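Journal club prep — side note

Before the paper discussion, L.F. wants everyone to see what a predicted structure for a comparable chain looks like in token form. Sequence:
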Amino acid sequence: MSKASSKRHRPTELAKQSAPTGERVAALTGAYSFLGREVLKRLDVDHRFARVLAIDVRKPNLPFQKTQFHKIDLTVPTADGDLAALFAREGVTDVLHAAFLSAPTHNLAWAHELEVIGTLHLLNAIGEAKVDQLVALSATAVYGAHPHNPNFISEGQELRNHPSSQYLRDKVEVERQLHRFSKENPGTAVTILRMAAILGPTIDSFVTRFFSRPVCPLLMGYDPLLQFVHEGDAIDACLIALLGRHPGVFNIVAEGVLPYTTVLALLGRVPVPMPSFLAYRLSRALWMTQVFDSPPNFLDFLRFLCVADGTKARRELGFRPRYDIQATLRDFLRLPPAQVRETAMAVGRG
């Protein structure tokens, strides 16, 4: 496992410039990501923020008004010093950490450096600059798909080990870093948003590509309930958390769940039944040859339950999704409401 460099290049003292009353300065890591770009669009025209800092290795192609782009690579050893100096100089009050992979990658070492070491660099900078609030993105997938999962998983459930998925192991390790930082830095409110799989008409991820295929595997003897969140609701959740001060962990999910076979029927996909042992072998071969970007362990979520409880986000965060699961699927395909309802009723009668 990689370790962050112990040599941190930063000024001996970083005196944070106090922002005038009512003036907030936001910084977003992962500004080029889907959620990063969409949140930037909103913050750039929000009068509650005097300035917005977009941080990434690539500049989003957006018509900025008050947003400043800063090219910083979170994986380099000097990133924490560069970020701390930037946050102090600009008087940053709020940080949204969205510099996470939206899909597994074959480059495991780089992925670990970006997510785990990159987060460590960011936390060092936030602690040094005394930032008021940090909102970090995670995923409900960290709970893992398991035969003994409850019907609805609350935020208090202990996260499982994921021996077959470094993608999930890294996300769990990041969450542990965030919890440690929160205990050691009570002056910074830390909010973690665990997002269900995000679907929508514009987001591009390995989940949207999986459900865009004309045929999908169906593991014989299994039909787990699935859960999503609409891309628009995911953006809203980021803004609600950023604009308020709600420390803690929150599941961000759409209303409702549906069996996997019903989801395929609503999307017009053809299920291909196959035994589990064959599905895993085939998936492993396609993953290794990079034909598909869905890793073999993704099949666990097509066998076992992994459904998160969104009650806490509604009660404490004030998050109210505008799209339920059927509306999310409909908008993913850009279908009229009646067509999805009729298909769902037909599947239920069948």
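L.F.'s comment for the group: The radius of gyration is 21 Å. Keep this in mind when we get to the figures.
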